[in-house]
Design a protein that fits this description.
This protein is an alpha/beta fold and 337 residues long. It contains twelve helices and five strands. 31% of the residues are buried.
């Protein structure tokens, strides 16, 4: 476990107090009124090394400025049918809060196809959700629960995971790298549910490659994970795919599908971006333009490259063993670990 002294934090604070202009403005969006906690995130991400943490944060701020990330919540994905297509193929949403007040982010890993738009639209959508979480959801949770809340939990649904997911490795690697380098330590725990054999097989070879800090954040739950998740959240906050004892999405769940565009989280996000775009249009004197934002993709570190290559090799091995079959392996459940 990394031990970070107050002296290191103070030195980091002193360094950041020297920035000005666009860097300062972007830094304000990063820490959202909680600079000390933000500095701790970057220090933890770099194992308490002040030099590395300062470089990481500076690189993040420059990335934000170069790609206009601070204005991304004023750049709606239009027309609306494109946005709906993205929501239907990039399954992510927020189902509620844990008992401690952490937002519950649900991700439909197995059923996301990422095939309805260009990679730039999906990256833009992902970053918008990150920014909305950091600038709106987490500050609101902090106010609601009366204590600082700066992280979320993520529940990853592997229902329907297929060998064809190999086609999405590039996009998922881009998104993962963006998160690792620019939104470090924002997820408290990752819960894997409804995991088929294909995930179990990959997990066994990938797990040893992960840093210890990352491994400790990942929990693979049996089946839908309902019973375990109910220890940390109320039933109403469970994602719809966790509301029955068996695996897979529940057709008879009382909990609304949080992936849908009509879910309150997505309606609020959509309305917020639309409102910010209207304000920006008044200031600029011009309406928002159609088209995606082209965000620069940072280079992944060697560890991430090795993990992606390992996953690709394992998928290919499974495909060869099954005669190249691309059918879903959902019916084969995790038997170990």
């Amino acid at each position: 476990m990394v031990f970070i002294t107050e002296e290191i934090i103070k030195q980091f604070q002193t360094q950041m107090e020297k920035i000005d202009g666009l860097l300062k403005k972007s830094y304000q969006n990063v820490h959202a009124g909680n600079p000390r906690e933000s500095l701790l995130r970057f220090l933890n991400a770099r194992d308490g090394n002040l030099f590395d943490a300062h470089k990481m944060l500076t690189d993040t701020l420059n990335w934000r400025i170069e790609n206009e990330i601070d204005n991304i919540l004023a750049k709606p994905i239009i027309p609306s049918d494109v946005y709906r297509a993205i929501r239907d193929s990039q399954l992510v949403g927020m189902s509620g809060y844990t008992k401690e007040g952490l937002p519950v982010i649900a991700v439909g890993v197995g059923l996301s196809t990422y095939d309805k738009a260009s990679i730039h639209y999906y990256v833009q959508s992902h970053i918008q959700i990150n920014e909305y979480r950091d600038r709106v959801v987490l500050p609101s949770a902090t106010k609601k629960y009366g204590r600082y809340i700066g992280t979320c939990i993520k529940i990853l649904d592997m229902t329907g995971l297929r060998l064809s997911a190999l086609n999405q490795i590039k996009l998922l690697s881009v998104i993962s790298t963006i998160d690792d380098l620019n939104y470090p330590e924002k997820t408290d725990t990752y819960y894997i549910v409804n995991a088929p054999y294909i995930f179990s097989s990959c997990w066994k070879v990938v797990r040893p490659l992960l840093k210890e800090r990352t491994r400790k954040k990942i929990q693979v739950l049996a089946g839908s994970g309902r019973d375990e998740l109910l220890k940390i959240m109320d039933y109403e906050s469970l994602p719809h795919f966790c509301t029955r004892e068996g695996s897979g999405s529940s057709k008879h769940s009382r909990n609304v599908d949080c992936f849908l565009l009509d879910h309150p989280f997505h309606r609020e996000l959509y309305d917020y971006v639309k409102e910010q775009a209207e304000v920006a249009a008044v200031v600029k004197g011009a309406p928002a333009r159609h088209g995606s934002m082209h965000v620069g993709f940072p280079e992944p570190d060697l560890e991430d490259v090795k993990i992606a290559q390992t996953i690709e090799c394992e998928f290919q091995r499974i495909g060869n063993r099954n005669g190249g079959s691309r059918q879903s392996l959902q019916e084969l459940k995790i038997t170990g670990d």
